[in-house]
Structures are given as C-alpha cells and as structure tokens.
Amino acid sequence: MSNLRAGLLIFVYALLFAVGTPGLDHMRSKMSATEEQRLRNRAGDTVADLTQFAVRINKNIRAPIKRKLGGFQPVFRIRQAWNLYRDGPRNVYRLEIRVDGEPVYRSEHPELDWLEPQLRNRRLRPVVESTVKKFKSANWRGLSRLVVNRARAQWPEAQRVELIALKGKRPGKRLRPQHRIIASAPEWSVEKTK
Amino acid sequence: MCLLFDLFQVLRLGIAQDIFRLGKYGGLTAFHDPHLVIHNWWGADAGLIAMGITAACAVMIISGFGARLAILLGVLAYAQLGHHFPPGDRGVDRIIRTGLLVILFSGAVGPWWRLKGKTMPGWPVDLLKFILVMIYLSAGLAKLIQQPGWVSMSAEPPLLRILADPLSGRIDPVFWNDYPWLFRMGSWATIALELSSVLIFTRWCRIWACFGIAMHVGIFATMHLGMFSLGMLSLYPVLLATPLRPASDGADAAMKRDIEE
Predict the structure, then answer these.
(1) Which residue, A126, B6, B152, B164, is most buried by CB atoms nearer than 10 A?
(2) Are strands A102-106 and A176-184 parallel, antiparallel or unpaired?
(3) Rounded CA separation B210/B237 (Å)
C-alpha cells in the first residue's frame, strides 16, 4: 500500500511539473531564424542556444504530456499556469460614470465613489479593466447594463448614463476619453463610440 | 473561510445575479467556458445554485462533517462557477481548488477535535510546498521573461505601474511617480522572493515564509485584489508548521494548567 502511494505521489509530482513547468508556460512551439538571430545579437550565443533548447523541450516533450495527461484540469479548473501580474499598464486608465452629465464615479476618486464596492469586487474588476482598456472588450454590454440598471434605480428621472474610458500617459495628470458607452432614455439601449 | 467570505461579499454587494447568470438570462457575461455543463441541467439559475452548493460545501469542510464528499462536490461546483464567469475566476481560485484536492486525499479531513493529536502522513504538506514553489517560481520567471524591467536599474519599475494603476491599485500614480527608486527596490525584492521560493524545500523555509507574508500583506494593503492575499496566506501554515505546533501545544498546556489551578 505504501509503495502504491509512493508511486502515485511520484506520478502526481511529475504530472504537476510537466503541466506547469516554471518558465515554459509562455514558451512558443518554435522560434524563427529571425527571432533567434535577434536574440543572439541582444543576449549572446549562450542565451540563444539555451532558449532554443527550451523551445524544443517544450514542443517535443512537455506539450504532448500536457495534451494527453492534462485533460483533467478543466474538470476542476486547476490549470497550472501562474502569471500573477507580469507587468502593469504603460498608460493610466480610469473609468468615469456620468448620469445626466454629472460625474458620479471615477476610479480611485475619494468622493466620486458611487458603485465603488461593486466595481472593485475582485470578480467584477477584470471586466471593468477590459472594458476601459480595450474598445473591443467581451463583456462591455453586460457591464454597461449593470451600471445603467443601477443608475436608473438610484436616479429614476435620469435621462442619460455614460461610461467613459479615460486614458493618459503616466503619471496620469491629464486623461482624455478614449471611448464612451452611452445609454439614453427612453430606449436605454447601450452604444459604444470613440 | 476565504471562499465563504468571498461569496458572501458577492451576495452582500448584490451582484450575484449579474455574475452568476449567463448573458442570455440577463447576466453580465457574454461568453462562458466550453466546460460549463450545469446550465444544461439547471437553466437560468445554474450559477446561483452552484454558488449555493459551493458555500454549503465550504461550511461542511470547515466543520469537518462529510468533509471528503463536500470537498469533491465543492471543488466541482466552484469550478463550474469559474466556467460560468471566466473573468471572475482568478489564480487564487485555482490555487484554492488545487489545495482542496490535495486535502481531499489526505488524512487531515474531519472534525478538528478528532484530528487533534492524530499522527498522519506528511505527503500533503510536501505536495503543497511543491505546489507553492511552482507557483512562485512560475510567477517570477514569467515576470522576468516577459518584462526584463523588473530587474532594470533605469526602466520604469513595473511594480509602480501595477500598484499605481487606478483600476486595480490603491496608490496615487501622480504622487508616487516621484519615487521610482522605492518601487525599483520593491520590484527587485519581488523577483528575489519569487525566484528564491525553492528555499521552501530547505531549513530556511520559515524565514522565506516571513518575507512571503510581508509581500502578501503589502499586496493586500496596496491593491484591490479581494481574497487573493488571504487565499495565499491560507496555505502558509504548511510553511510554518514546525514553529506553529510547539506554540499551539504550549498554549494548550498553559490553558490546562490554568483550569487545574
């Protein structure tokens, strides 16, 4: 029994290491000759050779194991890929919400904090981020509906609700609208404009 | 407990129906993972039902009653919540599910008064340590490979960009922009901590854990990441087990002496 447990444990360790090998998660399956030469020029022959070796290991050994044995991961949603904030945005972004032209919310503003707890919730925050940073974000309609419905509940006589994505160069003293989402009475359908 | 707190927050803020309903039923998300199956069984309320199951299982796990079944059902329901609303299912959720699956097969399942003083195999602790090393090492290497500015002496510190992002950080980008050296040092310290996570396998594990705790407390104070730091710190007892147990035994002995006196 203990031998069986030991064998199973070794298998589990090997499997976890194969599906989540540190440093190889973002490695591509091949490196072109141009990319290799650029790397050689920038970082030297040793780094380029090691990178090429890692790419081959990733493609020929790790990727097939991950494909064949990593299929259990989605069942429990435990994909072993750990980014954990590689970098931050190069520009400064804020979301501003206006009801009938009056600002009621702006990211990290001490007074304009309507809906702050909801928009800051860790499950909703990524949707806010993608809606502000990208014009073509997946869930902008859903987020807009959430904001508009709550605005209409809070201010029943409101005629217009806007979500404005503000962007500016660091440190962010001057921000400009990069796109807007607008909903107006009486239809209250949401539209996005640049 | 982290998970219960997190789900309670979703309820308290009144966003459960927005997050855990599909777009076609009035929810927020326009898409879901292809591995979502519960909406075929339970329709529009599938997400809310899975949320209830996850919370109920969390209570059973904490109490220790029916814990093994609760862990299995809870992880499956929790995973379906993630498939339901992928943007809201973050790294900490995967970490918690992975940790729960390790505990599922361990001897540390049951009411706490039955576990106290019980001898059990140590492989779950070793496996959790291995998983923590993989997490931190992967995070550190991913940072370095994709953004060499983490160790640069002159580039804009990535840590400043992360903490001073108004969409996720708490600190003012205008004010703190004048102190890049502070964030440069923080960036180096972050990389050093993550790449040195292999020390978890050595006798310096507890010292490393103290720095890890400091990092997660710092993240909690400077970013709006919800239960991320709490979820990570919930695994730290496996790193601090050696000093924690004598301290706990000492506290028990002191209490017994007080009662006898």
Answers:
(1) B164
(2) unpaired
(3) 11
Q: Does A74 touch chain B (CB under 8 A)?
A: yes
The answer to whether A122 touches B224, Cβ cutoff 8 Å, is yes
What does the domain layout of chain B look like in residue ranges? 1-119, 122-261
User: What separation, in Å, do the N-terminal and C-terminal C-alpha atoms of chain A show?
Assistant: 66
Other Cβ atoms less than 10 A from the Cβ of B188: the count is 16
CA distance B37 to chain A (A): 10
**Chain A residues within 8 A of B226 when measuring between CB atoms:** 121-123, 125
pTM of the model: 0.87
Name the residue in chain A with its Cα closest to that of B85.
A123
For B130, residues 6+ apart whose C-beta sits below 8 A from its C-beta are A13, A16
Distances (CA, A) of A161 to A111, A154, B4: 19, 12, 34
Q: Nearest by CB to A22, which of B78, B137, B164?
A: B137
Q: Is the peptide bond before B237 cis (omega within 30 degrees of 0)?
A: no
ipTM confidence score: 0.85
Nearest to B87 among A82, A139, A172 (CB): A139
Burial of B254: CB neighbours in 10 Å, binned 0-12, 13-18, 19+: exposed
How many CB atoms are located within 10 Å of the residue B196 CB? 16
Residue extents of the structural domains in chain A: 2-76, 91-193
Q: Provide the residue-wise pLDDT of chain A in tens; the chain has 194 residues.
A: 778 888 988 989 988 888 888 888 767 777 788 888 888 888 788 888 888 888 888 888 888 888 887 778 888 888 877 777 778 888 999 999 999 999 999 999 999 999 999 999 999 999 999 999 999 898 999 999 999 999 999 999 999 999 999 999 989 899 999 999 999 999 999 999 98
